[in-house]
Design brief:
This protein has about 750 residues and is α/β, with parallel strands linked by helices. It has a seven-stranded mixed beta sheet with strand order 9-8-10-11-13-12-17. Strands 1-2-3-7-6 form a five-stranded parallel beta sheet, sandwiched between helices. Helix 2 crosses helix 12 (about 330-350) and helix 5 packs across helix 12.
Length: about 750
């Protein structure tokens, strides 16, 4: 029969404490718990209770697992020294917690009225719909009142947003003319410290320090020496992180020894709070009970090593510290331990009776909040006329007779957004003095200052992390990714973090943003794969993500206003795919016709999500519908005019919205015309054509459908790009082919 290591750890604690001789009792609770430490006995007793509670939650959760009542067994056993970090920090210091930071969560919960820490954790492990942060969608440590946003299990993904929050704290305080002393706390494991996401965040924090940019974030590495079964090399964390003087202050603690953990945590928190600089707290821990309930440690550790680790149990070490100092008697420790176990088992009996999620609608309710009327009202907001005239001049953009191209109209719309929303910030690579690669953000830094429009370092993970953190700090972030292909370097920050926050917090936390990306292909004289990317599947598969893609300047302005309103009003993360090849396009049919130039829409005008653009033939009913977007719209309109001379009349639909797709709007046109050609400039297997055709087949059976799509290929350099991208001749042939077919 296999030995239960949980039972061994439990028995070791009880037997060792019982056998410890009592020391003379002491009652001066404000004295140091032992000579040389700043940790008082009173505070040590409080933290010990959280340590015990965390340990027994692990044990009770495993008991429930054997009965099929719980669903999560990654515990915090061996990491209970992190309770010291909770004690040394404040409740208003936002904490982005590692999944083994249970004692931190309980210490903070126990110190503040309101949250029922242990009960809430048990609701989480049983996936109860009554769990107050995630509502049964995941077992996470999180609480609005405790300033602990829930974290997913993605490795190290919380580090960039913790840094982003820290940077945003002082930036927002400067906007509001006040000082700030809150900090960000971020805990993670030693194996996670090697992940590219963690490396990016730590590097960016050091970059901030080098630039004298306030970045009050405390990185807490809970180092137990393992990543599941893979050992962390001896002294690797210390050698790697204790080597950045002036950039990342390094503090070391023994998390198995509560006074050591407290003294280091207090010093680190004080440094970050007063210096407004990043710091790294290296807390040595042990991992008890394996990686998770299903992990068999004996496959990669010897029994002797396991026993040696169990002898370093931090909860046991704190108990012995209190007993040897006379602060508790052995029988008092045992009584506290068993009373806590009894209480938690009683709570466990209660939580299994609590309601579960039972419908798909319940699961998805917080995923993509929508309130069209509230969004419309928000999109109608505008800065005062005087403020706009101070910025644009006496003749406002909407009053100018001269139409302009897409890039100029976007620049104006971004300026209007910054004027209307004083909490909005715009940032990315090269967006400041240069004004972006395509000058879309030209002069915005000069007008609004580097506090609101600023360059970041060249790292997309950091850009998105800053956006997420800024949202947590109450700002409205407008990050820019320079090219669509560059997003792939950091897609998890969008998919695993920003996209999931409302889902995993039951709508209590949000990551509002309007992510602008220079996108798609058809650039002439420049490009290749990284600058002419037409793959959007990674974005479209993110649940709840709103994706807009304009084709012309006036639509772009109205759509941007809607996205800003969605982010501001509903906390939604949104993406604005700006077609590079159309930024400077002026003409449509003939050189010099200026048909693709537009006037600036007056403030208050917006386009609701799901609305499409409709371009009818010059006369008579349409023979077929062509559904397309971005460069596809520009090309299709050119083709449609030529084919009308052949007697083929096309109604051209600009989809505008790529997620969710405007199926309802397209369905109405399909029912009327019964022939639909989808022109999708993206790749055949990663664009929108398949989804559109499938939905049409389900909604309007018998409709004739066809597609013209790009090849499943990277985009090569120069004229060879035209061999894999949709061309006008292909569109013309697709229209002729479909027009020739008889509708049954």
């Amino acid at each position: 029969m296999a030995i239960s290591r949980a039972a061994v750890v439990d028995r070791n604690f009880l037997d060792t404490v019982r056998s410890r001789p009592p020391a003379p009792a002491r009652s001066d609770l404000d004295a140091p718990v032992r000579p040389g430490t700043r940790l008082t006995a009173r505070r040590a007793l409080e933290l010990f209770e959280a340590q015990v509670e965390s340990r027994l939650l692990d044990l009770v959760s495993r008991e429930m697992k054997t009965r099929g009542q719980s669903f999560y067994t990654i515990g915090s056993s061996g990491h209970e020294g992190n309770a010291a970090v909770a004690g040394a920090s404040r409740n208003d210091d936002m904490a982005f917690l590692h999944y083994r930071s249970g004692a931190f969560f309980l210490a903070r919960a126990n110190a503040h009225p309101g949250p029922e820490g242990a009960f809430d954790v048990l609701l989480g492990v049983t996936a109860s719909a009554e769990e107050p942060i995630a509502g049964g969608r995941h077992k996470v440590f999180g609480s609005v009142s405790l300033n602990i946003p829930p974290q997913t299990s993605t490795i190290a993904s919380q580090l960039p947003k913790a840094l982003g929050y820290a940077v945003a704290l002082d930036r927002r305080a400067r906007f509001e003319g006040r000082t700030e002393d809150r900090i960000a706390i971020c805990s993670f494991g030693d194996a996670s410290a090697n992940h590219a996401t963690a490396v990016a965040a730590v590097n960016s924090a050091a970059w901030c320090a080098h630039q004298n940019v306030p970045a009050p974030v405390l990185f807490v590495c809970e180092d137990n020496g393992f990543g599941i079964s893979v050992r962390t090399p001896q002294n690797w964390i210390a050698r790697n992180f204790d080597s950045r003087p002036g950039l990342l202050e390094y503090f070391s603690a023994d998390g198995r020894d509560l006074p050591s953990a407290w003294d280091a945590a207090e010093a680190a928190v004080d440094f970050v709070r007063t210096k407004r600089m990043p710091a790294f707290l290296h807390m040595k821990t042990v991992r008890l009970l394996g990686h998770a309930g299903s992990d068999v440690e004996q496959l990669y550790r010897t029994n002797a090593e396991i026993r040696e680790t169990e002898a370093q149990d931090p909860v046991l070490q704190t108990a012995l510290l209190l007993v040897d100092g006379g602060w508790l008697q052995p029988d008092e420790v045992i009584a506290l331990y068993e009373q806590t176990r009894t209480r938690l088992r009683t709570l466990a009996d209660e939580v299994v009776k609590r309601t579960k999620i039972t419908t798909r609608e319940q699961v998805m309710r917080p995923l993509a909040p929508d309130d069209p009327e509230a969004v419309k009202r928000s999109a109608q907001k505008s800065a005062e006329v005087e403020a706009r005239q101070d910025f644009f001049g006496k003749v406002l953009p909407e009053q100018q007779e001269r139409p302009r191209h897409l890039a100029v109209q976007l620049n104006r719309a971004l300026a209007d957004t910054l004027l209307t929303h004083p909490e909005a910030i715009l940032f990315g690579e090269d967006v400041a003095k240069k004004g972006g690669v395509y000058h879309v953000t030209a002069d915005l830094t000069k007008k609004f200052g580097v506090g609101r429009v600023f360059n970041t370092l060249l790292d997309e993970t950091t850009i998105l992390g800053l956006a997420i953190g800024a949202g947590h700090a109450g700002l409205l972030p407008l990050p820019e990714i320079q090219y669509l292909a560059y997003l792939m370097n950091a897609i998890d920050q969008l998919r695993g973090e920003a996209g999931s926050m409302q889902f995993f917090s039951n709508g209590q936390y949000a990551n509002p943003m309007v992510l602008r990306i220079a996108s798609l292909a058809y650039q002439k004289g420049f490009g290749g794969h990284f600058h002419n990317d037409n793959g959007i599947a990674a974005l479209r598969e993110i649940p709840g993500l709103l994706i807009a893609c304009p084709s012309r300047g006036d639509d772009a302005v109205r759509m941007l206003r809607t996205l800003v309103a969605m982010a501001h009003q509903l906390g939604r993360p949104t993406v604005f795919l700006e077609p590079i090849a159309l930024y400077m396009t002026k003409d449509l049919h003939e050189p010099g016709d200026g048909t693709w130039l537009t006037h600036y829409p007056p403030p208050g005008e917006s386009l609701p999500v799901g609305s499409v653009g409709v371009y009818e033939p010059s006369e008579g009913p349409a023979d077929l519908v062509v559904a397309t977007y971005a460069n596809g719209l520009w090309m299709t309109l050119r083709v449609a005019r030529r084919l009308e001379a052949e007697g083929i009349k096309c109604r051209v639909i600009d989809l505008r919205w790529l997620a969710p797709l405007p199926h309802d709007a397209l369905e109405g046109h399909a029912r009327e015309v019964r022939r639909v050609l989808v022109v999708d400039e993206c790749r055949r297997s990663s664009g929108v054509a398949e989804a559109l055709v499938t939905e049409l087949a389900l909604r309007v059976p018998g409709t004739l459908v066809d597609i013209v799509v790009g090849a499943d290929s990277y985009v090569p350099l120069g004229a060879a790009a035209n061999l894999v991208l949709v061309q006008e001749d292909e569109i013309a042939e697709g229209i002729r082919r479909l027009a020739a077919r008889e509708v049954s």
